[in-house]
Amino acid sequence: MLTLAVSKGRIYDETVPLLKALGLEPAVCPDKSRKLILPTLNPDFQLLVIRATDVPTYVEYGAADMGIAGKDVLEEYEATGLYEPLDLGIACCRLMTAARVGAPDPLSGGRPRVATKYVKTAHRYFARHGIQAEIIKLYGSMELAPLVGLADCIVDVVDTGNTLKANGLEARDLIMQVSSRLVVNKAAMKMKHTAISRFITAISQTVASHAGRSIQP
Ligand code: PRT
Ligand code: MG
User: Fold this and answer.
1) Class of 93-177 per CATH?
2) What's the pLDDT tens digit per position in 87-111?
């Protein structure tokens, strides 16, 4: 049995077409079921549906053999017990600083207060630019913080930028490009080597053909 941990929402939605191409599509839809362990059309392959930020934990401890997680989540988790063999090119976005329209740039000096759920990543980013930021940990709705004086800026992932715009904020500096990665537990990679390498080869071919398809006119 191989177990793959994924999060509900955009990662699940973009992963299912890849799994379908391999005959591994879920037998039930997580939105219609309360099950957290989803069987697939292959009896030897199951999915765990968990929070995005929990995926590296399940995989590092071997509760899942493999997982799919955003690079933003992996950077923040600082996993050492994981292999990251493949960029799936899904759920793409950018990790950025953002501030109120017209406010000073977060990198312009001083000691900015930064609201984010990416505490370690933000700390590293500002330190690299010689700025000693005060990082305030939030769990969601980061966009609110600069509007009510909780923070000077935020660090968050941006896709279309519509959420920032709707709240009078603008993206400033790019911290990193983000896409979702396949991660693999190190012990599972040894113990289940044949099955896992077969899965990696198959899914990387699917990723390559999906990428090829999207650039066709
Ligand atoms: O939502 P929940 O609290 O349950 O967990 P989560 O936010 O960790 O999970 P989820 O499913 O929202 O995101 C999972 C992964 O998707 C992230 O770790 C990223 O790698 C990736 N991803 C890609 C995104 C986005 N695009 C994205 N746009 N994650 C979040 N967003 C947010 C963004 O922060 C903004 O608030 O979606 C909102 C809309 O974005 P705009 O710029 O299109 O308006
Ligand atoms: Mg979210």
Assistant:
1) alpha beta
2) 999 999 999 999 999 999 988 888 9
